[in-house]
Design goal:
Length: 163
């Protein structure tokens, strides 16, 4: 009788666990291959435009998946490109939008600028898969327009893989 009761309790516990496992979300993962293609295309596009840049591509956790430092870049561009990618990913919007709100003196944005890895400078773009944030790309070394264009070229180069 005691064995039957224990088996019944064990079966109920297993039945309760199975639905919980079925409810776990499925997360898309940014691969090195995709991230490195994005970064390489962004650097190459900027070089063609006459800008020496560094590029970072981060995942949804802010972890660097690919980072390229182009030839002749200034020393600060490498860290700056990471912060732009992180800012775009964290706020799910271009870092230029964050920059504009910061420049307008938006109190929340001014306070958030003190957070680690946040920068109020354009050149960071978020990218998505099926409307869900997958990461951010940050480009540093050119002007905002050039940096954004190079970052978008990197995203466009892998658009067919971001599905």
């Amino acid at each position: 009788m005691k064995t039957t009761a224990c088996l019944s309790v064990a079966a109920l516990m297993c039945a309760a666990i199975i639905p919980a496992q079925a409810q776990l979300p499925v997360e898309k993962v940014l691969t090195f291959e995709v991230a490195s293609t994005m970064a390489r295309v962004a650097v190459e596009t900027c070089v063609e435009a006459g800008a020496d840049v560094s590029v970072h591509v981060v995942n949804i956790h802010g972890e660097t998946i690919a980072a390229f430092r182009g030839d002749n870049t200034r020393p600060y561009t490498f860290e700056n490109s990471y912060e732009k990618a992180y800012t775009a990913m964290a706020f799910r919007r271009p870092s230029a939008d964050y920059q504009a709100e910061y420049a307008e003196g938006t109190a929340t944005r001014v306070q958030q600028a003190d957070f680690p890895n946040i920068v109020a400078i354009g050149g960071g773009l978020p990218f998505y898969v099926d409307g869900v944030i997958l990461g951010g790309i940050g480009v540093s070394g050119g002007n905002n327009q050039t940096n954004n264009g190079c970052g978008q070229a990197g995203i466009d180069a892998v658009a067919d893989q971001l599905r």
